[in-house]
Design a protein that fits this description.
- This protein has 318 residues and is an alpha/beta fold.
- The chain has one domain: UDP-N-acetylmuramoyl-L-alanine:D-glutamate ligase (3-Layer(aba) Sandwich).
- 35% of the residues lie in helices and 21% in strands.
- It has an eight-stranded mixed beta sheet, sandwiched between helices. Strands 3-2-7-8 form a four-stranded mixed beta sheet.
Length: 318
């Protein structure tokens, strides 16, 4: 059955204020770029730029920041029909310093934020049965009413044959206890086909000491696979049948690592929805992630398809 959307992304959105003073300590920054961010929002843009039809279920405040985000998304061709305004709540914000190659001080402003107010009624008004894939994120599970709305969305998607991908998206400041993140995530995994995360994220989700042990535990919960992002060491896909597919990384010069994981998810989902095998989809994710690492922003700097394919071709192909 043909569906109206390739994917529906659900969860957080924000205005990202990223330092224009590259290399400057945070306390000396004099200028910020106004960009758009938030894991599911970034992925909605990243997949749209690759050519997929993406729609976004997020919450924004009745404020100029929300309009800023919506204006950008509409310009990108992301369907915002199902994004909701939450009166009495504000659109969230993120501030970031950029000190390559490995220092990126990050501050979240999410008190009373709109996207965590998504409800089950908001989910019921969304087109989950009309989407091939539902993308949810770990931060969406951090507080009510978003937690139950996210789990409801995953359950409904499972019932109607919409594939569910969970980006583990672990942000410690959004949880009162890392163990709460772990137990909440593991309770959600039976409704998830594919989970995607970094070493820190899979360990937090599984409550395990090593990445390999974490992946093994998460595999017991998901329906299909765990995708393990290894940064400069590439990525690996572990499937329920015991197979492992490793995709090598690309050689790049790091400017800003924030947003790379969402770019990876965008490329991986693009390949997966196009019927590519696990290795090829992961290699595509590595390429889109590598491109964003060389750029300042997240959603604003997601690559188009030709850019990603050109990088793959220049460094050994798929």
């Amino acid at each position: 059955m043909a569906r109206s959307y390739d994917l529906l992304c659900m969860g957080r959105s924000s205005i990202d204020l990223y330092s224009n003073d590259i290399g400057a300590p945070f306390e000396t920054i004099t200028n910020f770029a106004a960009l758009v961010g938030g894991c599911p929002t970034n992925i909605s843009v990243g997949t749209r730029r690759l050519g997929l039809k993406s729609t976004l279920l997020t919450g924004v405040g009745a404020d100029p920041v929300g309009q800023f985000i919506l204006h950008f998304l509409r310009g990108e061709g992301v369907d915002t029909t199902f994004t909701v305004t939450k009166p009495g709540h504000i659109t969230s914000a993120v501030l970031l310093g950029i000190e390559p190659p490995d220092k990126f001080p990050l501050v979240y402003y999410r008190d009373n934020c709109a996207d965590i107010e998504l409800t089950i009624d908001d989910v019921l008004a969304s087109p989950i049965p009309e989407a091939r894939l539902l993308l949810i994120s770990g931060t969406g599970l951090s507080k009510e009413p978003s937690r139950s709305a996210t789990q409801y969305a995953a359950e409904w998607a499972s019932d109607v044959g919409t594939e569910v991908v969970l980006d583990l998206d672990y942000r410690p400041t959004q949880w009162h206890d890392a163990r709460a993140y772990g137990i909440t995530t593991r309770a959600t995994l039976p409704m998830v086909d594919i989970a995607i995360g970094t070493e820190d994220e899979v360990k937090a989700a599984a409550g395990a000491e090593t990445g390999e042990a974490a992946v093994e535990r998460l595999l017991q919960g998901v329906r299909k696979a765990v995708v393990y992002k290894r940064g400069g060491d590439g990525s690996s896909v572990y499937t329920k049948d015991g197979a492992v597919y490793h995709a090598s990384a690309f050689k790049i010069k790091v400017l800003n690592t924030l947003g790379a994981g969402d770019a990876f998810a965008s490329g991986f989902i693009y390949g997966h929805l196009n019927g590519w095998d696990w290795h090829k989809a992961a290699r595509m994710g590595n390429a889109t992630g590598a491109i964003v690492v060389t750029r300042q922003g997240c959603a604003n700097d997601m690559p188009i398809l030709d850019e990603a394919l050109a990088l793959v071709e220049s460094q050994g192909g798929f």
